[in-house]
Every structure is written in structure tokens, then in C-alpha cells.
Write a structure and sequence with these properties.
Elements (H helix, E strand, L loop, with lengths): L4 H34 L5 H9 L9 H14 L1 E9 L5 H17 L2 H15 L2 E8 L7 E7 L4 E3 L13 E8 L1 H7 L2 H8 L40 E19 L5 E3 L6 H10 L2 E17 L2 E7 L7 E4 L2 E3 L2 E3 L6 H22 L3 E3 L9 H7 L15 E3 L9 H16 L3 H4 L8 H14 L1 H25 L4 E6 L7 E6 L1 E2 L5 E2 L7 E9 L1 H17 L6 H6 L6 H11 L7 H46 L8 H71 L1
Antiparallel strand pairs: 1-19, 2-3, 2-10, 4-5, 5-6, 6-7, 6-8, 8-9, 11-12, 13-14, 15-16, 17-18
Length: 703
């Protein structure tokens, strides 16, 4: 884009206001917290003065050990994201979205990214994601998630809430090379900036810079013979995302009242055609939309409406109180300083005790001079030759002040108490502490870190919402998604989304419906499997019949999937072949026939009892009347016996047929297994013979 002094000035003034309204203070605090985490904990001037006086300068980095335990807590509590249907959503699409999200997180290596963002939050108080659509690997776009340096993200000075949707603007500034600007934005603008020896822009002192934090540090020379090929990142690019009100066209679903914005690039004819085809209404209304402006010095590199519904920046704050972010390191700085100073003073006193100095009369030393005494005065077995034994006296050393060692101990305890990370959380409990007590202390330690972990879950929820919005916006065409499973076999699954059937319906249509995000915290896979293995083993020891395959699946064996499958197959629990399934079906039918036969016998018994009761009543009635010839009971009994015989014959015939079929299937299966064995043996023998022939041919060629 051409030079636009007014827009570039407006963008820079807003950036400068955000920078000077607390961001520079945050950067200073973040730098100090980073240094304490790395172990750079002494003021350089003070350290040089103490070293010049020969005093020890100790750094006992408890901050690193404490934050490492918090990072371990984060690593052991991962998130499982799923989606729940709301308005116009279906469970099938919810399941599809869950799998698509799993594929997106796997492609972006989100577990590692989350660890880096969480570490930024723990140490500096702020961590940031950047979520946008990337077209590098897919023409239709894929979700791209990256970590941002928190020093490069400037939040709206008027913002005070956690959710970026409540912010009015956010800045991302970074140093770029001329080649980067030419590739991402415009080659003409890059050449214009590269031709500048210095900025003529009013606020250019902050636009062209050659120092930046990197692997090389801040001591990079201004002029270097290696500053060639436009590889130096020396141009500050300011990326501003801010909200503005605008009057825009929207589609309206007449049935549900749902409103969706229409892209600015659509013409009037296209809007009307789409509205008519899908029976939608058209309305023009004022909405707040995100404007995306990118400037460098006095050049506007980009200025368009954002294609996203939210800011691309997503934060993580361990603690947020009325717009003030708090990390876990800044409150450990004072006790860490106290620990370093008291420990250094203790060592200094011990050193002075070993070499407290000497009082010597002038000229009393015969075998050395004063300089030699300074160097060798504390050596073991040193011999002093004197003109008079009373002319030399050792100075009385300073005594260690009472309670100085307690100050160091209290400093260590302060760090544990403030951070909420105890010895039990780090696995440093005494050997005589009971295991149950250690577990109780660990649970209490987890409560101390509940708020940072709860805010991490909040960030996970907001991240999933933004990924869902990009998926519904850009995953509109039919595409094949590969999902890598996290189960025992780590198998992969392929799923078709937005697939149009011959009937005209769309299967797994990701673009329709609204869905809620469900965040479930789960332990890390290795810890989860270890816990499952221990619980299963304890149940086995209590006498509960836990299958062997369950123990193997939750073990740490390298080939546990194959071993578990073999155990299941040996116990009849593996995946059955087609022949085995047919045999099992026949055996089930035999059991059903046996049950039918037993039911028939029960019915016959009941019929006999009823017949006997009828006969008894009839006999009693006949005793009151003159005898007469009646064969009703005998006829009914004969009918029942005939029906039973017929049923038994049918059951026997059916059973004989099933037994014959079962025997035939088993014989066919045995023959197939034997044939497979013979083929395998023949292939092995053939391969062996080919290897022998190849070996002999190689020996002949060598001769």
C-alpha cells in the first residue's frame, strides 16, 4: 500500500499510548522475573564490588526448582476438549467436531505450545496464543496456532477483563527483515523501507532499531560485516487489531432469526441470489467489527476488515485482578534475595574463620615476607621462622552470629509458603514420612495452584471457541480429516466432513449449528496408565479377577499392544475370524434349542398336572351321577403326548443338523489352518534356498 502518513501516525500514537500505559513496566518486571528464573539474581554492580573485596556471591536458585514443580503440575493435567450441541446442532456433528479439533491440536503440537504459553504465564504473568487460518498447506485454509512473545503483545490500556472479546484493541509488534516484509506484504513497500538510512517519520526513533532480544543477546554490534542479504531484523512492524462500528449487510434466517454477516467482497447480485436460493432475508445493521491495520514507520502495509469474529490473540494469566496480571515468580524475588545474601554471608564468615589474619612485628619474619604470608598464611603445615616467638599472633576470627543459619532456613520456608509448592510436591519429603501423608500434602499443594490451573482451563475453553469459529468459517468444503488416535495401538482414523450424499444431504456439515465447549482435565497419559496399572494390580491382589490383558495394556512394556492382543486371543477374547463367528452363532442356536426343550418339558409337566386336576374333578362329579362312558381325559392326554413327541423330534432333527454343520465348519477351519501352515513352511524353505543360492553366487563372483 502507498505511504499513508495520517493512518500510520494514528496507529503509532495508539501503540505508544498502550506502550507507555503500563506495558513498559510489565516488560521490566518480566525481564527481572526471567533473570531470576535463569539464575541471574544479583545486581551487576553489587556483584562486582563484592567479588573485588574477595567476598563470595552465591546464587541458590530456588525459583527455578519451584517453577519447575508448577510446570510439572501443568504437564500432568492435560485437557480433553469435546463439543456439545446447542441450537440447530446434532450429536453426530458434535462428535465430528471433537475429532476435527483433535486433528488440529495434533497438527499444531498444541501440548508443547500450551507448555510454553503456560511457562510464560507462570514466569512473566502473561502468555499468549495467536490463532488464525493458514493457507500454506491447504488451499481452503487450516487452523494455525502459535505462541507469541508476551513482550510483543500490548493490551488495550482500558481493558480489565480476561476475555479478549471485552477489549477494544490489541497490538502485536515484532522486528522483521526487508525480505519478510516483501514476502508477507508488498515488495515495493519493502524496497522503500530498505532504502531508508534512518527514519524521517516523526516517531521513527522507535521504528528502526538494530538491537533485539534473541539468541545473540542485546550486545549485537550496530555495524557488522555479516549484515548482508537483508537478514537483520531491524524494522518494527506494528499490527493493530481494533474494533470499529460499521453499517454492513447480513443474512437473516427467517425461521430461527439467526443473523450472519455477509463478506464485503460480495456484490448486490450475489447477495440476492444466495438469499433467494436458501430462503434468507437481507438486513443492513450497525455492528462492531474488527479492523486489522499493519504499519511500519510511515508505510501502511495492510488495512482491511478482519476475517475473524475475534482477535487472533488469546491470553493466559495465572492471576488477574482488576486489569493487573500476576505471575508466580515476582513474589519470590524478595525471599530469593534474602536466601542468596544470608547464604553468602555465612560462607564469608566461615572463610574468615579459616584465615582470620595475623599480627606481625616489623622484620620478625625470617623465611618469608608479608606478601608470602598473605598467600600462605592459611596453608596446612606452614612454618614461620621468627626472630622472637612473641612477635607474631593470630587474629581472633569473627564468630557466626547467633540465628544467622535460621535466617537462611526461614528464607527457604518463605519461598515454599508463598509459591504453595511444598517438599511433598517436589518429591523431597523425608524418608520417615508415610506415603498417605505425602499424598495428602500433594493434594493440599494442588489446592494452592487451583487458580492458575483454573485460568489455564479458561484459556483452553476460549481457544476451543475460536478454533470452532474458524472451522465453521473455513472448513466449508468436503475434505478428508486424518485423526491420530491416542489409544493403546495409536491407530489412525479417517473421517469425511461436509460430504454430499447422492440424495443431496450433507453428512457431518460443520458449518451449521451452535455448539458448546466442554473442557475435561485428564492426567498425562503415562501417569494415568501408571495409576490404572497400580489399581488393577491391587484389585488382583485382593482376589478380584482382573484380566491379564488389562494389566498389560496399562503397563509400560514396549510391545504391550501385541502382547495384550495375544493374551486376548489365547483366552478367546481377541478379534474372531468369520469362521469363528459362524461357529459361535451355531453354538448359540444349540443353547437356544436346549432352552426351548426345557420349556417344552415344563409345559408338558404343567399340562399333566392340569389334566390330573380335571380328571379328579370329573371323577368326583361322576360319583354323584350314574356311571357313563367318557373318553375325554384319555383323548386330551393322547394329544399332549403326540404334540410332545412331535416337538422332541423336531428339536432332535434341528440339533443333528446344527451339530453336523458345526463339525463341518470345524473341519474346514482345521484344514485351512493346516494349509496355511504348509504354505508358510514352503515360503520359508523357498526363502532359505534363495538365500543359499544368492550367497553361493556372491562367493563365486568374489573368486
Amino acid at each position: 500500500m502507498p505511504v499513508n502518513y495520517q493512518l500510520a501516525q494514528e496507529t503509532y500514537l495508539r501503540y505508544a499510548q498502550a506502550r507507555d500505559s503500563g506495558h513498559l513496566d510489565y516488560v521490566k518486571k518480566a525481564d527481572k522475573c526471567e533473570e531470576y528464573f535463569r539464575g541471574v539474581q544479583w545486581d551487576p554492580i553489587t556483584k562486582r564490588q563484592l567479588e573485588a573485596q574477595g567476598k563470595p556471591v552465591l546464587t541458590i536458585n530456588k525459583v527455578l526448582a519451584t517453577i519447575a514443580a508448577v510446570m510439572g503440575e501443568q504437564l500432568n493435567n492435560r485437557a480433553d476438549i469435546s463439543f456439545r450441541p446447542l441450537r440447530d446442532g446434532t450429536q453426530e456433528v458434535s462428535d465430528a467436531l471433537t475429532k476435527v479439533y483433535a486433528q488440529i491440536t495434533n497438527e499444531n503440537k498444541l501440548d508443547w505450545l500450551e507448555s510454553e504459553v503456560a511457562a510464560d504465564g507462570f514466569i512473566t504473568g502473561r502468555g499468549f496464543y495467536d490463532i488464525r487460518a493458514s493457507f500454506d498447506d491447504h488451499m481452503q485454509g487450516e487452523v494455525d496456532i502459535r505462541r507469541l512473545n508476551p513482550r510483543n503483545v500490548l493490551i488495550d490500556p482500558d481493558a480489565e477483563d480476561y476475555d479478549p472479546d471485552t477489549w477494544k484493541e490489541v497490538f502485536v509488534t515484532k522486528w522483521m527483515t526487508i525480505d519478510d516484509i516483501a514476502q508477507l506484504y508488498n515488495e515495493a513497500d519493502a524496497k522503500y523501507l530498505g532504502a531508508k538510512g534512518s527514519s524521517e517519520f516523526k516517531y521513527g526513533y522507535d521504528s528502526i532499531e538494530r538491537f533485539h532480544g534473541s539468541f545473540g543477546g542485546n550486545a549485537y554490534p550496530i555495524e557488522s560485516p555479516y549484515d548482508i542479504d537483508n537478514l537483520r531484523r531491524r524494522y518494527r512492524v506494528i499490527e493493530r487489531q481494533h474494533k470499529k462500528w460499521r453499517n454492513a449487510w447480513h443474512f437473516v434466517d427467517i425461521a430461527t432469526g439467526d443473523i450472519r454477516p455477509i463478506p464485503d467482497t460480495w456484490t448486490k447480485a450475489r447477495r440476492e441470489v444466495v438469499a433467494k436460493e436458501y430462503d434468507l432475508g437481507l438486513v443492513r445493521k450497525m455492528v462492531e467489527q474488527i479492523r486489522w491495520t499493519v504499519t511500519c514507520d510511515d508505510v501502511v502495509l495492510f488495512d482491511e476488515w478482519s476475517p475473524y469474529l475475534h482477535f487472533s490473540v488469546m491470553p493466559y494469566f495465572p492471576y488477574l485482578r482488576n486489569g493487573r496480571t500476576i505471575g508466580l515468580v515476582e513474589n519470590l524475588i524478595s525471599p530469593q534475595d534474602q536466601l542468596n545474601k544470608t547464604s553468602s554471608q555465612e560462607l564469608h564468615i566461615i572463610n574468615t574463620t579459616a584465615n582470620s589474619g595475623w599480627k606481625v612485628k616489623t622484620g620478625a619474619l625470617q623465611n618469608m615476607d608479608i606478601e608470602d604470608l598473605e598467600q600462605r598464611g592459611a596453608e596446612t603445615g606452614v612454618v614461620f621462622e621468627l626472630d622472637d616467638i612473641g612477635n607474631m599472633e593470630k587474629l581472633t576470627p569473627n564468630q557466626v552470629p547467633t540465628g544467622l543459619d535460621r535466617v537462611s532456613y526461614k528464607s527457604d520456608e518463605y519461598i515454599k509458603e508463598i509459591s504453595g509448592v511444598s517438599d511433598s510436591s517436589r518429591g523431597f519429603d523425608r524418608a520417615d514420612v508415610a506415603a498417605k501423608a505425602i499424598q495428602a500434602k500433594k493434594a493440599a499443594g494442588s489446592v494452592n495452584l487451583a487458580k492458575p490451573m483454573d485460568n489455564l482451563n479458561r484459556t483452553r475453553h476460549l481457544l476451543a471457541v475460536r478454533v470452532l469459529d474458524i472451522v465453521q468459517e473455513y472448513y466449508t468444503e468436503e475434505r478428508l480429516v486424518n485423526i491420530t488416535g491416542g489409544g493403546l495401538n495409536d491407530s489412525s482414523e479417517q473421517m469425511q466432513v461436509n460430504q454430499t450424499t447422492p440424495e443431496g444431504t450433507i453428512v457431518n456439515d460443520l458449518t451449521i449449528g451452535e455448539y458448546d465447549v466442554v473442557v475435561t482435565t485428564v492426567p498425562a497419559r503415562a501417569n494415568f496408565e501408571e495409576t490404572q496399572f497400580q489399581e488393577a494390580l491391587e484389585l488382583r491382589q485382593l482376589g478380584i479377577q482382573i484380566p491379564d490383558a488389562v494389566l498389560v495394556e496399562n503397563s509400560h512394556l514396549s510391545r504391550k499392544a501385541e502382547i495384550a492382543a495375544e493374551i486376548k486371543a489365547a483366552n478367546g477374547g481377541g478379534e474372531k475370524s468369520e469362521e469363528d463367528q459362524q461357529i459361535a452363532k451355531i453354538e448359540l442356536q444349540l443353547k437356544q434349542l436346549e432352552v426351548a426343550e426345557m420349556q417344552a418339558k415344563n409345559k408338558e409337566t404343567e399340562a399333566k398336572a392340569a389334566s390330573a386336576l380335571v380328571a379328579a374333578k370329573k371323577d368326583a362329579f361322576e360319583m354323584e351321577k350314574p356311571p357313563a362312558q367318557d373318553n375325554t381325559v384319555a383323548i386330551e392326554r393322547a394329544k399332549l403326548q403326540l404334540e410332545r413327541a412331535k416337538m422332541q423330534a423336531e428339536i432332535k432333527l434341528k440339533r443333528d443338523e446344527l451339530v453336523a454343520t458345526l463339525q463341518l465348519k470345524r473341519e474346514e477351519l482345521d484344514a485351512k489352518i493346516e494349509l496355511n501352515k504348509q504354505e508358510a513352511a514352503a515360503k520359508a524353505k523357498l526363502a532359505h534356498n534363495e538365500a543359499i543360492v544368492e550367497t553361493k553366487s556372491e562367493e563365486g563372483s568374489e573368486k
